């Protein structure tokens, strides 16, 4: 199905990029003055006609995830990076149908025969929201700052680590010289910032870009206000080259509780809610003015083990259980996990059983373990593995190691994610039968103990884009923190030389098929080490009010998601119901949103779109 959107000043083209963590989101179109937020668009339109004045439309998105930073150089959470997608342009964007690279700030690009020099043509019609032109000099300054200041490379340093030199010989030409070939040069997911604003910043480690509004950008929206754990407000960038969004205001409103966001959707106070539970989705399907979107997901839900937190300087830290350093213990734990039950009982069929690191939605990179390699549910086998490794059951029924220490583990759980809690209960039951104890520690924010290495296991998950470079990079030795006091880009301190060697190979391989095979070998290695156990690939389960949103673009168009897209397409394309032909009667929902979509997937082969959902405060906050 294809989304229908009113014509734009420029051709409607689509993008791709992300992360899924617990950002419960809802989009509320309020077509009334601020003092009357509960009014419906149709009612507001009548009032507007009475006053001969157009009603102000506001699209409110409820999020349950805290913003880590409004600085594009520091932000790693999904909600933050999603907002940056709206506020800043990237060199390239991604087509909504097949995720192929399309123009963004750059209108064209070419490479030298040796693939070491890339030249980008920068568009002439991109303006910063303060009226100044966006040029190649802004892009060169952004990249050079990341190359020379480690603090500026905090969030996206992996994109520029292989850059040797970046120059802007003229306002419309950007030249990037590489140390070695890099297969992701059409997917540099780095927000380009205005040099004339950011060159005044003295300490990139502390500047959060949240003191002076409006924030200068060149994306479809301009950030106008922000209050921690309350809201972020944006307005259309009337100077945006692709055309301004249709809503007068976009608000991301903080909801700590997902049920509260759903209740707000039912009342008409918000328009869109993602990350629904199956029970919530079932209830919302009965509502006349609410449409449920159940699409193949772009993220995985996994169990991560602490492999021994360490820094690049060789020092170890944290208090992870030493038994988890034993691959036999990790193997036994995973043999005692019934993925089929989790899909059926926890996700109630709105997920696919987990296997490799990359979801089946990304067909060219999707990997499945071989028959003899696969660790299927086998609790008896798990007990035999532990027995053979010397972990015996004592007189109290507790499994203990050779040192007499019981196998009692802790698992970090996101308090805002009901899936974490439900899966935790199953793990307690299954592992308890092996004599292994498990304490489920549910926190509003798991970032602090995770970064400190103060955990044994953790529920992990990343939203995945068609190009695997970023999400694979977070398991390389180079992303470890420099010292125990620093914070690296690592996901959970994995450092495996064999994995690193394969990562280096795929990074320079331009042949798509050959690169895909290397990526699959990387997933095989990650599977065998047992540090990451992918449990499921959840569907994108979300809902919106058809009497408030007249049309909106999913990605992919045929069977895709709205929240957490690889670009700004959903919010940029959203049209108030009052402005569609049906006048908001409930029949003007996006044709690109499909209720109850099964496993139909667009297989994306194109190289160039990164993973982005970075850190881990909830189920969909990785990028």
From TrEMBL:
Residues 1-38 form the signal peptide. Its main location: other. Residues 101-473 form the Solute-binding protein family domain. It is found in: Cell envelope. CDD domains: PBP2_NikA_DppA_OppA_like (cd00995). InterPro entries: Peptide/Ni-bd, SBP_5, SBP_5_dom. Keywords: Membrane, Signal, Transmembrane, Transmembrane helix, Transport. The chain crosses the membrane at residues 591-613. PANTHER family: PERIPLASMIC BINDING COMPONENT OF ABC TRANSPORTER, PERIPLASMIC OLIGOPEPTIDE-BINDING PROTEIN-RELATED. Belongs to the bacterial solute-binding protein 5 family. This is ABC transporter substrate-binding protein. It comes from Streptomyces roseoviridis.
């Amino acid at each position: 199905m294809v989304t229908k959107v009113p014509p734009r000043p420029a051709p409607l083209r689509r993008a791709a990029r992300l992360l899924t963590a617990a950002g419960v989101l809802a989009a509320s179109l309020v077509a009334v003055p601020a003092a009357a937020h509960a009014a419906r668009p149709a009612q507001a339109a009548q009032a507007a006609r009475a006053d001969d004045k157009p009603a102000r439309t506001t699209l409110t998105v409820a999020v349950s995830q805290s913003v880590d930073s409004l600085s594009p150089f520091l932000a790693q959470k999904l909600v933050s990076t999603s907002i940056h997608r709206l506020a800043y342009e990237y060199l390239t964007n991604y087509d909504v149908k097949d995720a192929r690279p399309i123009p963004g700030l750059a209108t064209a690009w070419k490479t030298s025969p040796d693939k070491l020099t890339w030249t980008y043509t920068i568009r002439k019609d991109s303006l910063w929201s303060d009226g100044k032109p966006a040029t190649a000099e802004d892009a060169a300054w952004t990249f050079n700052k990341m190359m020379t200041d480690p603090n500026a490379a905090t969030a996206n340093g992996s994109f520029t680590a292989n850059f040797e030199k970046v120059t802007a010989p003229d306002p419309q030409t950007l030249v990037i010289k590489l140390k070695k070939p890099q297969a992701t040069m059409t997917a540099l997911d780095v927000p380009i910032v205005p040099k004339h604003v950011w060159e005044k910043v003295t300490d990139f480690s502390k500047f959060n870009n949240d003191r002076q509004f409006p924030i200068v950008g060149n994306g479809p929206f301009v950030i106008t206000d922000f209050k921690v754990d309350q809201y972020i407000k944006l307005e259309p960038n009337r100077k945006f080259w692709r055309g301004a969004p249709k809503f007068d205001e976009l608000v991301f409103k903080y909801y700590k509780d997902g049920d509260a966001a759903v209740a707000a959707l039912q009342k008409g106070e918000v328009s869109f809610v993602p990350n629904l539970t199956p029970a919530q989705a079932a209830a919302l399907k009965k509502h006349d003015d609410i449409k449920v979107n159940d699409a193949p997901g772009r993220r995985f839900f996994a169990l991560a083990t602490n492999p021994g937190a360490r820094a690049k300087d060789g020092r170890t830290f944290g208090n992870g259980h030493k038994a988890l350093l034993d691959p036999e213990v990790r193997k036994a734990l995973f043999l005692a996990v019934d993925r089929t039950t989790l899909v059926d009982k926890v996700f109630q069929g709105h997920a696919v059983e987990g296997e490799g690191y990359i979801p089946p939605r990304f067909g060219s990179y999707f990997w499945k373990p071989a028959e003899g390699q696969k660790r299927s549910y086998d609790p008896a086998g798990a007990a035999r593995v532990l027995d053979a490794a010397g972990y015996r059951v004592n007189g109290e029924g507790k499994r203990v190691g050779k040192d007499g220490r019981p196998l009692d583990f802790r698992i970090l759980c996101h308090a805002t994610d009901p899936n974490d809690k439900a899966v935790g209960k199953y793990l307690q039951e299954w592992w308890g039968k092996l004599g292994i104890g498990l304490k489920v520690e549910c926190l509003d924010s798991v970032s602090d103990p995770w970064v400190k290495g103060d955990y044994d296991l953790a529920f992990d998950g990343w939203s995945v884009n068609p190009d695997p470079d970023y999400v694979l990079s977070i398991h390389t030795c180079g992303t470890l923190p420099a010292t125990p006091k620093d914070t690296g880009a690592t996901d959970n301190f994995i450092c495996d030389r064999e994995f690193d060697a394969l990562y280096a190979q795929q990074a320079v391989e331009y042949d798509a098929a050959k690169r895909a095979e290397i990526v699959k070998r990387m997933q095989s290695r990650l599977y065998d080490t047992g540090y990451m156990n992918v449990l499921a690939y959840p569907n994108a389960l979300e809902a919106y009010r058809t009497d408030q949103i007249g049309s909106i673009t999913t990605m992919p168009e045929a069977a895709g998601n709205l929240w957490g897209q690889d670009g700004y397409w959903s919010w940029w394309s959203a049209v108030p119901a009052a402005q569609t032909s049906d006048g908001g009667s409930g029949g003007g929902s996006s044709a690109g949103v499909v209720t109850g979509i099964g496993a139909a997937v667009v297989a994306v082969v194109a190289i160039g779109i990164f993973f982005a959902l970075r850190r881990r405060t909830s189920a969909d906050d990785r990028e």
